[in-house]
Amino acid sequence: MNHIEEQLFYRLTKVIDPELGKSITDLGMITGIHTSPRDGEPNTFDVDITVELTVPGCPLSETITRQIDAAVESYADATLIPHITVGSMGKEKLDNLVAQLKAERHQNPFNKPGVKTRIFAIASGKGGVGKSSITANLAATFAALGYDTAAIDADIYGFSLPRLFGVHEQPVNLNGMLMPAMNWGVKLMSIGMFAGSDRAILWRGPRLQRSLEQFLADVWWGEPDVLLLDLAPGTGDMAISVAQALPNTELVVVTTPQISASDIAVRSGLVALQMPMTVRGVVENMSWYEHNGERLEIFGAGGGERVSEQLTRDLHYDVPLLAQLPLDPEIRETGEAGRPAVLDAAGQLRIDEFGQSFTRLAQELIRRP
């Protein structure tokens, strides 16, 4: 390599594959860099760069190409004209790369000493309280705040995160290792992304546990700052599996204001008495409906406070009421259209009261208890 080619290779070490979270040079994706002077144009060079992607037609190839262009343009000592040739890895090279990545990761990457990922499980005592909507909006908030964010739809029977994030494609299968889908800045995995997911699922204990193990160990997550799990309602097999596989999980309990919901919500928090979990707090959803400037408490009032007080008493540590969120048809309509309602159409956090509520909730959770 000449001096310019060495400098370009160094700059390309800073280009990160969006799916694998590693440098494209470390992954062996750069197979050639060649510079040649342009006739009649002083200090100007054509730069031919050959790139091998992990899969043909990689949906993020344009992202990688743009980053390579930017790395070439950052060279200030000459004018460089990039010419990028994109191909895909051969089977043997890809097999070796996947084997290397699996050897680095071993099994569940979130249950190793020194892992930095904060894990929050969003739980509820019953269905219909907006738990999945809160999970989606909280994940989108973390991502918009700059955190590397992942989410697992652990509600195997009632998965809804793919719809709420507007994800319709299946995960990319990289020789037996799955790449999570990504939208609105969040890496996502759900049983709802796979063929036949519209059929009734009749799994029980062992198979449910295996589905979670696969989502943890067979998916390349990288090292996210935050992982959210949308749990099934109640205290069944999946909640137990999460506690066993991810003992550093922090629980957030979702309820609505009425007594019938809040009493059941307490049970989901009391799982922490039998499992190595900490309950970080309570979120009360559908607290009021705004009508002509008046807040109507359609489902009553006080449910979040009741759950907070009872869990604080039974668990013998403070379990605060973290947020109260409104009942708003726009939130449902936007979410069902494939965009977390906490984001505007440009993918930025809303600056109104709703957006500020989720910002405060995310900042409180990420703060060490």
From TrEMBL:
Alphabetical list of Pfam families matching this protein: FeS_assembly_P, ParA
Superkingdom of origin: Bacteria
Sequence ranges assigned to domain MIP18 family-like in this UniProt record: 6-74
Family annotation (CDD domains): Mrp_NBP35
Residues given in the record as ATP binding sites: G125, K126, G127, G128, V129, G130, K131, S132
Gene Ontology BP annotations: iron-sulfur cluster assembly
An example Gene Ontology molecular-function term: ATP hydrolysis activity
Keywords of this entry: ATP-binding, Hydrolase, Iron, Iron-sulfur, Metal-binding, Nucleotide-binding
Classification via HAMAP family: Mrp_NBP35 (MF_02040)
Stated family: Belongs to the Mrp/NBP35 ATP-binding proteins family.
PANTHER family: IRON-SULFUR PROTEIN NUBPL
Subunit note: Homodimer.
Stated role: Binds and transfers iron-sulfur (Fe-S) clusters to target apoproteins. Can hydrolyze ATP.
Name of this chain's protein: Iron-sulfur cluster carrier protein
Provenance organism: Bifidobacterium magnum
Upper taxonomic lineage: Bacteria, Bacillati, Actinomycetota, Actinomycetes, Bifidobacteriales
